[in-house]
Design goal:
Blueprint lengths: L4 E5 L2 E6 L1 H9 L8 E4 L6 E2 L30 H11 L1 H26 L6 H38 L6 H10 L1 H31 L4 H24 L3 H6 L5 H12 L11 H19 L1 H13 L3 H13 L4 H33 L1
Antiparallel strand pairs: 1-2, 1-3, 3-4
Helix pairs in contact: 2-13, 3-4, 3-13, 4-5, 4-6, 4-13, 6-7, 10-13
Length: 359
């Protein structure tokens, strides 16, 4: 079915109209590139100039090569703009964050209450706490696609200088739930498969007894794992933005994400989307390491001090089963609150990279 559009002129809305009707209106002078438009089933407004095929003969595909580099022009500093947008929409980003961490917090609070309830059967408490925690986990996973879509929508609106209410964000984000949920699952499965498979092979080689050949194969597999993970990161860099902001379907989101991430080869290397994305992801990784450093330091201290394999496994299992301390809960909450910053930065990178390609 052809797309239908609504046109807004001086506060009045006209339509719906398909592309052919819009072309007629353009010929009559009733539609100009600066007019606000939106798709019938989407509340995010854009301009008529961005409708493919309306003001140009065809929608230009994303080019992996640009013959002439775009001229220098004033550009938003991504990091400064990221924190400006995060500060402006802090409480709405916090609301989206609570959607996914709220169920986990409820499960932990319930488990703590049950554990301190006197005269309660221990087995019954364990069953109730486990069942409730599992239900909260499912709820958190179900809300994750809304969280992802909400960050894209809110960031795009704030970066364009428009405001948007929290309920409207949720209403728009729900529309993208099936698409974002499927793509999220697909991306996670791809990363998990190409991470766990080489690790499993390396462990099987190690258990077979160390030798020069086995060590070489293990290093080769480790190098392959790093290479394939890097390729997956590049190919999936912009799937969230294309799925939500451009309204692409699953296959189109993945294809255009790969094309945009690998574009800009005529630009300076530090202006290409792939390298800028690597810098953003690396800085986030440093933040995660800094926030979780006490737990990481304790983990490596255990590895260094416990030499017996059985004792090491027992120590790691005991550490994993230990109840969360207030400090660890606070660290996890802080990391969750800061996570939208990563999403904002990639939305801005996506918008900036598209400008580079269009020019």
């Amino acid at each position: 079915m052809a797309k239908q559009w609504i046109v807004r002129v001086e506060g009045k809305e006209f339509g719906p109209a398909d592309l052919e009707m819009l072309r007629e209106w353009k010929t009559e002078g009733r539609v100009i590139p600066a007019n606000e438009v939106r798709e019938v089933d989407v509340d995010l407004w854009t301009t008529a100039a961005k409708i493919p095929g309306l003001f140009e003969t065809a929608a230009p595909p994303i080019q992996t090569e640009i013959a002439v580099a775009a001229p220098d022009r004033p550009r938003a500093k991504i990091f400064a703009e990221t924190f400006r947008i995060y500060g402006r929409g802090f409480f709405r980003y916090l609301g989206l964050t609570l959607l996914v961490i709220g169920p986990s917090l409820c499960a932990q609070a319930t488990a703590a209450v049950i554990a301190t309830t006197p005269n309660a059967d221990v087995d019954l408490r364990s069953v109730v706490a486990g069942a409730f925690a599992f239900c909260m986990l499912l709820l958190s996973l179900a809300l994750w696609p809304i969280y992802i879509a909400g960050i894209q929508i809110l960031t795009a609106e704030l970066s364009a200088g428009r405001d948007i209410g929290f309920l409207r964000i949720l209403n728009e984000a729900v529309r993208f739930w099936p698409r974002v949920a499927f793509l999220s699952l697909f991306v996670v499965v791809c990363f998990a498969f190409w991470t766990l498979l080489p690790v499993a092979v390396i462990l099987s080689i190690a258990l077979g007894g160390p030798s020069l050949t086995s060590i070489f194969l293990a290093l080769l597999l480790l190098a392959f794992q790093v290479w394939i993970t890097g390729r997956l990161f590049v190919n999936f860099m912009f799937w969230q933005q294309f799925a939500v902001l451009d309204g692409c379907d699953v296959a189109e989101s993945l294809r255009r994400s790969k094309e945009l991430a690998r574009s800009g080869r005529s630009l300076s290397w530090f202006r290409r989307p792939v390298w800028r994305g690597v810098v953003i992801a690396s800085l986030w990784f440093v933040v995660v390491l800094a926030v979780n450093w006490p737990a990481i330091e304790n983990y490596f201290r255990t590895l260094a001090t416990v030499t017996d394999p059985q004792a090491l496994m027992e120590a790691l299992r005991t550490s994993a089963q230990a109840p969360a301390s207030p400090l660890s809960l606070g660290v996890g909450f802080l990391q969750s609150i800061l996570r939208p910053v990563l999403g904002i930065a990639f939305v801005l990178l996506y918008l900036d990279s598209k400008i580079d390609i269009e020019h």
